[in-house]
Amino acid sequence: PHRGSEPGVGWNMALAMSQYHQVHVLTTAAHKAGIEAELAINAHPNLRVTYVDPIGWIYNWKSKRKLHLGVNFHYYFWQIQAYFQARSLLRTEKFDLAHHVTYVRYYTPSLLALLPLPFIWGPVGGAEAAPPPFRVDFHWRNRIFETLRDLVRGLGELDPFVRLAVRKSALLLAVTADTADRFKHLGGRDRLQLMSEVSLQLAEIDCLGQLPPPSIKPIRFISMGRLLHWKGFHLGLRAFAEADLPDAEFWVVGNGPEDRSLRQLVRQLKIEHKVHFWGMIPRAEALEKLSQSSVLVHPSLHDSGGWVCLEAMAAGRPVICLDLGGPGVQVTAATGYKVAPTTPIAAVTAMAQAMRRLAEDEPLIHQMGQAGKLHVKENYCWQSRELWLNDLYAQVVADYARRPLGKVDRVY
């Protein structure tokens, strides 16, 4: 509860569907304190939670280690434990379908697909990758990271349980076209739909929509998020330097391993007097910074989601991003600028041109801002998604009931 990223996706999905159905959630006890605290305040009678962890191993997400190497092992073993827990529940309870919601990645299997139930896998992503020309800018350690990520993804596709999960899914939900292509490659072409994993609650959309409108006096660009190499913040700073706008400012909100290199880049570009690093600040303060800004710059190279883009559009701020991953799906020509990811030089120049256009045209900023608010409310609101998912559940269950019984079904 009250979290973004994967925890927020899982909680909001469970909460949304419990408005219509009895939902039994299997999750790790790492989230138990937050969930129990929320349920003590807001009762949800249709929502039950069972905490599952392999051999009692609760993964510590608050660890200060830079690399969470154990999480993949925990996740894989968690899937095995969750499968047996679900089989145990099936002995005493009737379920109509199984739905894997998180992790939002396609190349590690969900063993719930092995249950004698119609199975929905997704929304999942993970096929998004930094285009090769953009990797030249990375530190050698980050290039190795990207290469290893490609390797892990490729090995994951060879996992027989991944292929079995694709084959046994009644429906596959992919967050981007990249992941949809991989599902097609794995044999899921005929049961595939696109669906972004990110949405906002209506109350949050309304709250963001009440922020003051953006201004260009002065125009202030902002980037928000973890300072990671693949977030592409170095591209946004280079574009800002190339745009060379008088009296303009660039704010960076967040922290991470790229903090030092980004500060060094700012000095090299001789724009340190125009750039301010705010570090990691509480969400309320971050929204205050957003309200004082004009345009969000989010040139991420392989973001499957992109919550900050939705939040910026809901707040009436145009978005400048690369036409990649989740942001490339969420942002439209009416709500911002999507730059073609051909080469770093071309992308930086295109973003600089977008910055100049917005800096010279305040009515355009307001026009895109209003379009963004409408776009989020119509397409990325949980309350609207509830209805869509409810219809989807009904269709999947009905299709499963009409299927011809096969040898595998009779074994169960």
Q: What does this protein look like?
A:
The protein is α/β, with parallel strands linked by helices and 412 residues long. It contains 17 helices and twelve strands. It has a six-stranded parallel beta sheet, with helices on both faces. Strand 11 (319-322), helix 13 and strand 12 form a beta-alpha-beta unit. Residues 407-412 have low confidence and may be disordered.
In terms of structural class, how would the helical and strand content be classed?
alpha/beta
* Discrete helix count: 17
Mean of all residue-level pLDDT scores? 89
Parts with pLDDT < 50 across at least 5 consecutive residues? 407-412
SSE run? HEHEHEEHHHEHEHEHEHEHEHEHEHHHH
Number of strands: 12
How is the largest sheet built, in terms of strand order? 9-8-7-10-11-12
Overall 3D form: globular
Radius of gyration: 22 Å
Distance between the termini: 36 Å
Percent of residues in helices comes to 40-55%
Largest beta-sheet characterization: 6 strands, parallel
